[in-house]
């Protein structure tokens, strides 16, 4: 058991996972050291196992059983790793993987945090709640005072945070337990984000399309980015060979803007149609993930694509993270595959779907300076070994096998989502209970904007409706079952985009003037112009005209376009002063229009 003092209410000791080290050359426990951390830890929620990936070789050099929630991320410090879920954090010793403990601290907010591995960290940043958690001994929760954007950290360990509501740019020192101050101010209300350029913090103002290097306690001169960008454009947190990489989801483009003053010509990359996450920079290349096609893409500072690699698991939300080794790691939703992007843009796939099958070695004991060669000595020369004494075989006695213990539930089946107006309805099938009744289901979601949330429903429910979502934003929902043993792996839904339904309207007015017959002559005679909006796309509707005077017309059947709209002219009429209207499918009535001469 780890003996540590923590400012939180309780530290619970978890069941120790079996420690294993993979024999890959010189396999050994991962030492703790105050140097730049290498490699990446990933949590496989199906196997309930953490794997350490050597970023240079792509090999798995350590793994151990650690319990965690579906979708959990792993961040590492000098000596410990942390499996971070929406409701709890499990700490493990990187050198003694068999020792685990849960940090019983309430989640600062109902959202997935941004994990940052840097000197003085690791950190968890709850952007919507405006809180930063520094994990360590002891851990600390630092309130910022309001919602924040994605922070950046300079080489000295100072974290810089931007508050979009006030425009304040605040700092958090490497070992500080509170915000050091807010020495810099960006224009309040201006959308934008922070980045690192040549080791210095900078602010990208997407409202004015400029970049400002932070110089002491003020913003430096505005450097134009060279091309217009959308207010919701996202810069990478680190520059790319002196250029800042900015993803513009609205324009489906990636901008590589020169940060010099005066700047050079910007590079604009037209991206294939998709739903992109990122950008993230290694310093030499920029990395994007197309969630729609499930592809990792890398580009150089000249805009040329370097490499690409598919993500095998197409459901759920992949996660990008930048390690202290400047490599970018992309995990699939369940932690069964990791794509490693080297500094030069080379992409390597690492499977963490199964436990390695190579021979395993126990962790060596600490080096005490005493030789530890334990090879068996040869027996003395000419010494006869005694023959083993044979024992009589005893008859076997039939025994009752022990009962199989209960386990965490399996993944729910047939998880699906249907979008509504600022809402979504999620349905699922029952999860295997694994010999312990399911007591609840955790329904969590993540938006393409990075916002997250979750709700818990009873074990007997098979559907729930989540409200308060943003329209025209992509959401993926994950459902996981819980029983008395714990929470099982999650299963993800299809992506959906809540939308505000259009109100169905039908408007009639006078259309083209033309003769129909001797009873309907110009200029009085003409067609009715009918405008339909907000109907179901590509569906047939029967439209019948009516009038306040004697008039009879069987109407016609029309088909809406792909957006549910249609404008057409039909139904000749020529009685000036009479009122006309149309009815769609015998239910929806248009406005009343007084007929005029053409």
Automatic annotation (TrEMBL):
Chain intervals with Low complexity compositional bias: 371-387, 395-413
UniProt keyword annotations, A-Z: Carbohydrate metabolism, Glycosidase, Hydrolase, Polysaccharide degradation
Region (Disordered): 298-329, 352-419
Source species, domain of life: Bacteria
Domain (Fibronectin type-III): residue spans on this chain: 408-506
InterPro entries given in the database record: FN3_dom, FN3_sf, Ig-like_fold
GO biological process, one term: polysaccharide catabolic process
Molecular functions per Gene Ontology: hydrolase activity, acting on glycosyl bonds
Name by which UniProt lists this protein: Fibronectin type-III domain-containing protein
Top-level taxonomy: Bacteria, Bacillati, Actinomycetota, Actinomycetes, Pseudonocardiales
């Amino acid at each position: 058991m780890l003996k540590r003092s923590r400012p939180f209410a309780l530290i619970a000791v978890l069941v120790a996972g079996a420690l294993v080290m993979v024999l890959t050359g010189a396999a050994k426990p991962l030492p703790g050291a105050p140097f730049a951390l290498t490699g990446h830890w990933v949590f496989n929620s199906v196997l309930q196992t953490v794997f350490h990936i050597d970023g240079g070789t792509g090999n798995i050099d350590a793994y151990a059983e650690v319990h965690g929630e579906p979708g959990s991320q792993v961040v590492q410090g000098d000596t410990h790793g942390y499996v971070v879920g929406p409701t709890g954090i499990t700490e493990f010793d990187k050198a003694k993987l068999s020792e685990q403990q849960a940090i019983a601290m309430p989640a600062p907010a109902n959202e997935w945090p941004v994990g940052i591995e840097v000197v003085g960290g690791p950190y968890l940043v709850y952007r919507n709640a405006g809180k930063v958690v520094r994990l360590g001994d002891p851990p600390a929760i630092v309130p910022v005072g309001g919602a924040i954007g994605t922070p950046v950290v300079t080489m000295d360990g100072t974290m810089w945070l931007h508050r979009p509501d006030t425009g304040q740019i605040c700092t958090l020192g490497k070992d500080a337990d509170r915000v050091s101050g807010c020495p810099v101010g960006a224009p309040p209300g201006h959308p934008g984000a922070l980045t690192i350029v040549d080791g210095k913090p900078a602010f990208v103002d997407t409202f004015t399309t400029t970049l400002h290097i932070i110089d002491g306690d003020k913003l430096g001169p505005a450097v134009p980015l060279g091309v217009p960008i959308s207010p919701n454009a996202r810069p990478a947190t680190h520059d790319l060979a002196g250029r800042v990489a900015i993803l513009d989801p609205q324009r489906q483009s990636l901008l590589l803007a020169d940060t010099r003053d005066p700047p050079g010509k910007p590079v604009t990359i037209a991206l294939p149609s998709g739903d992109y996450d990122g950008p993230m920079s290694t310093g030499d290349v920029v990395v994007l993930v197309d969630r729609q096609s499930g592809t990792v893409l890398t580009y150089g500072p000249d805009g040329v694509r370097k490499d690409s690699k598919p993500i095998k698991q197409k459901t759920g939300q992949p996660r990008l993270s930048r390690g202290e080794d400047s490599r970018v790691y992309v995990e699939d939703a369940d932690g069964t595959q990791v794509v490693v992007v080297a500094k030069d843009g080379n992409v390597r796939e690492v499977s963490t779907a199964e436990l390695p099958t190579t021979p395993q070695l126990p962790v060596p004991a600490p080096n005490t300076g005493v030789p530890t060669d334990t090879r068996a000595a040869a027996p003395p020369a000419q010494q006869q070994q005694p023959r083993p004494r044979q024992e009589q075989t005893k008859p076997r006695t039939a025994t009752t096998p022990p009962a199989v213990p209960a386990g965490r539930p399996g993944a729910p089946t047939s998880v699906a989502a249907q979008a509504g107006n600022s809402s979504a309805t999620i349905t699922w099938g029952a999860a295997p209970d694994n010999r312990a009744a399911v007591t609840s289901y955790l329904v969590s979601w993540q938006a393409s904007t990075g916002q997250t949330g979750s709700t818990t429903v009873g074990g007997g429910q098979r559907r729930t409706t989540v409200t308060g979502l943003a329209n025209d934003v992509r959401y993926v929902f994950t459902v996981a079952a819980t029983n008395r043993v714990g929470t099982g792996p999650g299963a993800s839904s299809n992506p959906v985009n809540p939308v505000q339904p259009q109100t169905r309207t039908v408007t009639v007015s006078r259309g083209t003037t033309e003769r129909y017959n001797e009873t309907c002559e110009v200029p009085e005679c003409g067609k009715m112009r009918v405008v339909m909006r907000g109907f179901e796309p590509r569906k047939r509707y029967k439209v019948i005209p009516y009038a306040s005077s004697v008039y009879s017309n069987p109407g016609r059947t029309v088909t809406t376009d792909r957006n549910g709209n249609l404008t057409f002219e039909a139904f000749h009429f020529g009685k000036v002063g009479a009122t006309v209207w149309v009815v769609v499918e015998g239910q929806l009535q248009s406005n009343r229009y007084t007929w005029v001469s053409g």
